[in-house]
Specification:
Number of helices: 5
Strand order of the largest sheet: 1-2-3
Shape: globular
Oligomer: single chain
Radius of gyration: 19 Å
Number of domains: 2
Largest sheet: 3 strands, antiparallel
């Protein structure tokens, strides 16, 4: 594994543990040349379904896109990086468990919103406003009403 700082190809594993979800191994490494420490993740290689976008185009699944969306929604919110990673892991599990060769961005977006709603309501509204293209204050109000109804029925 190349060091992200000096590109030296030799590093040693300092610490290794499985993630909460148990589907990957987190390794802390130290570069043998510059002593910089960095983290890597090891995951089993799987065959991912194609993602069908709203315009009908098909693209490869990219974990980074989901991770970026989660991070933007949770920016400046009291949710740890570990919990954010767990959300991404659960969405990935959902995508894989679909068993389909293709899955729509709508299905993934709805799953993301479900996860965010359970973790942080502000992040949920942020994500929903972008995902559902809220254009007016009434759009926000309608979503907040749904959220309040859900909270009061629990």
């Amino acid at each position: 594994m190349k060091c992200p700082i000096c590109s030296h190809s030799e590093s040693k594993v300092v610490d290794s543990r499985t993630t909460k979800e148990g589907n990957s191994i987190r390794r802390r490494r130290e570069c043998e040349k510059c002593a910089h420490r960095f983290t890597t993740y090891e995951r089993a290689e799987v065959s991912w379904p194609l993602i069908v976008k709203k315009d009908g185009t098909r693209v490869d699944y990219l974990r980074e896109k989901i991770s970026i969306g989660i991070k933007k929604a949770l920016e400046k919110r009291p949710v740890s990086a570990e919990d954010q990673e767990a959300i991404v892991d659960r969405v990935e599990r959902y995508v894989l468990d679909s068993g389909e060769k293709e899955i729509s961005t709508e299905a993934i977006g709805e799953k993301l919103m479900d996860e965010l709603r359970d973790v942080d309501e502000v992040a949920y509204v942020r994500f929903a406003s972008v995902y559902r293209s809220f254009g007016t204050l009434k759009d926000f109000e309608a979503e907040l009403e749904k959220l309040e109804e859900r909270s009061s029925s629990e």
